Every structure is written in C-alpha cells, then in structure tokens.
Amino acid sequence: MLTEILVVFTGGTIGSRRSGAVVDVDGGAGFELLERYRALAGPLSEAVRFETVQPMMLLSENMTPGHWLGLVRCLRERLGAEPGRFAGAVVAHGSDTLPYTAAMLGYALADVRLPVVLIAANRPLDDPLSNGVRNFAAAVDFILDAALPGVYVVFENDRGEMPVMLGTRLTEARPFDDQFVPTYGAPLGHMRDGRFVPCGHAVNPPVAALRAPRGPALPPEGIGFATDILYIRPYPGLDYGLYDFERLPRRPSAVLHGLYHSATACSARAGAYASSLPAFAARCAALGIDVYIAPAKAEDTARYRSAHEIAAADGVRALARIAPEAALVKLMAAYGTWPGRDPEAVREREKFLARNVFFEHHEGGDW
Hints:
Blueprint: E1 3-9, E2 16-19, E3 22-25, H1 29-41, E4 48-53, H2 65-81, E5 86-92, H3 98-108, E6 115-119, H4 132-145, E7 150-154, E8 163-166, E9 189-192, E10 195-198, H5 207-211, E11 229-232, E12 254-258, H6 277-286, E13 290-296, H7 305-312, E14 316-320, H8 324-337, H9 343-354
Parallel strand pairs: 1-4, 1-5, 5-6, 6-7, 11-12, 12-13, 13-14
Antiparallel strand pairs: 2-3, 7-8, 8-9, 9-10
Helix pairs in contact: 1-4, 3-8, 8-9
C-alpha cells in the first residue's frame, strides 16, 4: 500500500531557476524536485505517492501575512478533507523568511496530528551544490520514520548533517554562510540513514510530549496576523526620538524590542531619554502602545542590573525563553486574532502569549 504525502510548493530558491545573474521562481521547478527525488531515492521512492498543490509562487522575502493565511487554509483543507489519507505534509519554502513561516504554522496548526515539515534550499536545484533534494528526501524520511505530529524544519548544514528543528525554535539563517542554527545550538534531532535520531539536550521536549494531543491554539476560522507590530533591535546610539508616534496617523498596537545576547539593552536614564528603553516604554504606555522584550531571561535566573531595570520598568512585558522570530510571529497572531482593547480580547491575547503552544518556550535551559 502506498503512503501518501502532501507536497505544498510556495516558491523560494527551491522553486527557482537561474537565468544569467538572476534567480527567480519558476512554476515548473517544484515538480522537478519530485523527479530528482525519485532519481536519488531509487526503489525506496516507489512506496510513496505525492499529492501536490501550489497555492502561491514567490520568493519568500515577498511573503506577507495574507500569504500565511492562504497557506494555513490550504494545509487545513487538504489534510482535513480526508482524515487518515496523508502521512504528513512537506512545505517547500524560501530560506529568507523560513523561521517566520515555520513559527506561524507551529501556532496555527498546533492541533494537527500529522508531521508538517518545511524545507528550503541553499541554491536552485540545477546547481550541483544545492541541498534541496537531500532536504526533501530527509523530510520524507522523517515523516515515514518518526511520524511525529507538529511543525518541523529540515535543512542540511555545511557539515553534511541533517538536523531536524522545531518550527518554533528556528532563527534566521546567518549571513555569509547561510546556515540555520537552532536555539541553544541543539536541534530536536538528526536524520541519519533514513532514521530520526533524537538529540538528548535538556531544552528539547521528549518524544512523548511531541506525540501528546494538543487543542487548537488559534481559532481556525478566526485566525489573523496583525501588521501593526513594530520590531526594534538594540544597538549603541539607538535614538528612540526617531519613533515619533505622536505625529503618526497610524500607531503600532505593540512594539517587540529585541535584546542583546545577554538579555540586555540600554537602561541608562541620566539625561539620556534618547537611548533609554525604560523611558521609551513609558512613553509608549502613555500612548496605549504595548511594549514587549524578547528573548528575556526567566525571573528566577541571574540577570544583569540593566535587565532588572528594564523588566521592572512601567509598560515593559517580558517574553521569556523564546526566539525573537517566534516572539514576533506570536505577537502578530495574538493582536491579529484578538485585536483592540476590549477586556475579553486583552484576556485572550495574554492567555495565548503565556501559553507554550508548540514548545516555543525553552524549558530546562539556563535562560
């Protein structure tokens, strides 16, 4: 009996071709992926049947929340139309915004009882150095071998390893070498010879927790993603005076403020409003703009004085032990699904933000 896997093509490098000095999406490149997989896997591929769908075709840097909603609808409709038909789904995506889409699907499909695996490629498929086909093959192997429900990312690294990462724990690929590094440097596991080998790191959830049933974290029929969330990263000389919200016709609903690697940012107050995060947060609070920081350390861990001062500042809300990419998408989902200042909407937002939907909160680490 053939095992069926849904394959969703969205574009990206894995769905592109090179023409001269330009790389751009090509509607036929995705289907070339299946042909190359068959050639790579040989007789093993004969046990798998692929159902394909192409709801969009774009470079992932052009992805918007509207595309996210289309992708969620596509996956829910296809996987839910005939329960039990598919063993899982592979989503072929671009690498630039892969962490954001992966986190989004981790929240939006938290209740789905099948593995949904996102893949990308470092180069177009016709480039001999491309890892796209190997990533696809590893995703298929993960679905067949591990069969773990949830959202995952598989992407071969420059050491020839094939890490499997939780969709909500992926950070942006590094510039210059294009490598994805999971939080704590600890992937969920690796694919080796067609088998999933878990990584026994303290922050990783046990396999039993991954298999445990989960209810929907977001209402499937009412999900939304806000586009009025502002993301600010700290750097020496950051001038908050440039964010003149009082003069804007449209203000952000919330600000996500990143932190340095030690969970700090400038907390100086002495005659220096321009660079003081606590002062900026107080100004935002007066305008009805919520301010969040991430990744913050948990309250029971040792922190620098500046981190304590920021956490204690009026109007600052800490999102602890979560990658910035996952934090930003979570805020977009919270404010898009439950917008406004109505007390019930505020309660639902806060409940969702506090909930560990799909292991985006790192338990067991030193943060």
